[in-house]
Amino acid sequence: MKILMVTRETRSDQRYGLGRSLAPIVEEFQRRGVEVGYLCQADLGRRAILWQQRLLALLNCLPGIKNTPTHFPALFQVLLERFNMGRLAAKLAVTQKYTHVHCHDPYIAMSLRFFLRFYLDHKPVWGITEHGFGCYTQAIHEDGVHLGHRVMRFMRHREANILRAAFWVIAPTRRGVSQIAHDLAIHPLPAHWHHLVHARPVVNRYSRKDARNRLSWNESAIYILSIGRISPVKQYPLLIEACAKLKLEKEPQLVILGEGDHSTLQKLAQQSGLTREILFAVAEDIGLYLCAADLYVSASASESFGLANLEALVAGTAAVCTAVGGVPEVAKDGALLSEPTIDALAETMQRMLNDPKMRETIAQQGLARANAWPDIIEITDRYEAIYRQATAG
C-alpha cells in the first residue's frame, strides 16, 4: 500500500485547518512502514501556477459572466485550484505508483479521475473526504463564493456523480454523512460511505499563570479566544458584535488566531464600541493560548467537525460554540452551545463569564469527553481498513 494525500491547502490552512488533522495520520502510517505522500498547493511548480493564472484571466474575460447571480471570478479561482491539484495528483499517482489516492475535496477527485483516463498502465483506487458540513458545493457557497440557482444545481449534480464513482467517501461526523446524502439526494446511503472523526489532537498543557506569563497577558482583562482563518463562515463580525454586548467588571479582550485580512475586523471592533483592539496572532502552539484564555468561543455559521473546538476540550478550556453542523455531535456537554445569532451568543458568553462554577463544570466535562476520544492509532486503523476494503472491492 502506497498512499497519496491530496489537498488544496495553503501553508496557513495547514497551520489552522486540515493539515492539523492529517499530519498525525501521515506520521502514524509512516511509523507503520506505509509510504505516504502529501500534496498541497505549495507543491505546484511555477509553470503550473502561471498556467492557472493565465487560464483564470482568460475565463474572466468571457462574455456574460458579469451581472449574474453567480460570482464567476471567485468560482473560477476555486475550481482551477482544484483542477490543477487533481492534474498533478494523477501524474504523481502514475509515475510514482501510488496504490491509493485520497482526495480531500470532491472537485480535486473530479480532476484526478479525468486525468487518470490518459494513463493506461496504472490505475490507483481513489476516494474522497468531504470536509464541509453537507455537500461541498454548499460549503463553497457559504464560504463566500455566491452561486446562482442553476450553477448550484449543476455543481451538485457533478458532485453527486463523483461521490458515486469514488471507492470511499468519508465525513467526520454521522450528521455530516447524512447531510451530504440529503443535499445531493443520494438514497439509500451507499455502503462505501463512512463517518470517521478526527483523532484526539495533541495539545500542550500549561498552568493558567504560566501561559499568561509567556504571552504577557495580565489580569486587567477577560481574554476571549477564537481560532480559525479569517473567512465569512467563521462569522468573526458576529463574535465582535456579541463581545461588544457583554457587561463585565473587566474589559473583554478578544484574541483571534487566524490568518487573513484583519483590517475590516479591527475597524468593526472600534465601531462596535470594544475598548480594546483585537489581538491577532499566528501560533504553532495552540495550547498556550487556550490555557491562558478565560473563554474559548466559536461563532461559525457551519462546521463539519470543528477541530479547534475539540482542541479547547483537550486543553480543559471553558468553551462556547454555535450549535451548527457537526459541532453538537463532537462537543456534546463539553461546551455550552448557542444559536448562531448576536444576541444568543452574547447571552451564552455572559452566562459563562458571570458564573465561574459553570465555567469549571463545562471545562471538566469537556476534558472528560476529550480523554475518551479515539486516539491516532484507532483512527489510523479505521483508515487502513477503509483503504484495504477499497482495494479488495
TrEMBL record:
Keyword Nucleotide-binding: no
InterPro entries tied to this protein: Glyco_trans_1
Coiled coil: none
CDD domains: GT4_PimA-like (cd03801)
All residue ranges annotated as the Glycosyl transferase family domain in the record: 208-366
Organism domain of life: Bacteria
One term of GO molecular function: glycosyltransferase activity
One matching Pfam family: Glycos_transf_1
Keywords: Transferase
Presence of keyword Transferase: yes
Protein name: Glycosyltransferase involved in cell wall bisynthesis
Species, as recorded: Nitrosomonas ureae
